[in-house]
Design brief:
This protein has a 6-stranded mixed beta sheet, with helices on both faces. It has a 4-stranded antiparallel beta sheet with strand order 2-1-4-5, covered by helices on one side. The protein folds into 2 domains: 165 residues, P-loop containing nucleotide triphosphate hydrolases (Rossmann fold), CATH 3.40.50.300; 80 residues, no CATH class. The model has no long low-confidence stretch (mean pLDDT 91). By secondary structure, it is α/β, with parallel strands linked by helices. It binds adenosine-5'-triphosphate and magnesium ion. Magnesium ion (MG) binds next to helix 1.
Amino acid sequence: MVKILQIEGISLQFGGVKALNDVSFHIEEGEIFSLIGPNGAGKTSMLNCISGLYHPSQGSIKYKDEEITKMKAYSRTNLGIARAFQNIALFEHMSVLDNLMLGRHTLMKSGPFSGGFYFGKAEKEEVDNREHVEQVIEFLDLQEIRHTPVERLAYGQQKRVEVGRALALSPELILLDEPMAGMNKVEKERMAQLILKMKDNGITVVLIEHDLGVVMRLSDHIAVLDFGKQIGFGTPNEVQENPEVIKAYIGENVS
Ligand SMILES: Nc1ncnc2c1ncn2[C@@H]1O[C@H](COP(=O)(O)OP(=O)(O)OP(=O)(O)O)[C@@H](O)[C@H]1O
Ligand SMILES: [Mg+2]
């Protein structure tokens, strides 16, 4: 078992609010790992600490044994960590294809200046980007809407494109913040299948999701947060049988 991510003693404070309070867990390479807990428990805050949007006041985050706690977000993207947002972060007027290409450009190594001097290299990179984005379009079945401006898509489709934006970055670790929120049953099942397919392709998945049926079915391990504190960690069976978790969360959420 290889630990791809190690979270140790992470605390994060906003004024008087302890969004995260001494949270520790690890994520194994190639698994689907879920973060669950009530609204305001600190799930998104934890993803923000992993992706580099927030910097914790205490604790350490290691990615493949490298200390990344203070690393800038874009450097983490280059290391292979990509993130899909709870609130969709797409350019509404742009097409699906352009949104995916734009995400990919943040990874371009040649940069706008070297592009002029090393045209061949930049051109090759552009071709690679296009090929990769085409694979993502195929993977997420976005062919029919590839040229549609995002603002004209149904919410469920926008969520799929938001996941695509993260996938376009060729991540080894993908962070999905409620990718199924607001979806109907069919769309949800489709997203569940896509998440399993990501795992089949060797991508490690961190999933935040409120639908416990989906969480228990997909996850290899689960961490449970409540008011910023970790109250449970383990396999779906272990978490489901944890009295503290049942009391704080699962009790009211079993459908
Ligand atoms: N940028 C911020 N400024 C101030 N407070 C914040 C900020 N981000 C999060 N918080 C607070 O931290 C706590 C945890 O919020 P967080 O968004 O991480 O919860 P969550 O588990 O993702 O909830 P939800 O299920 O509703 O998405 C909440 O009390 C929230 O109000
Ligand atoms: Mg959240």
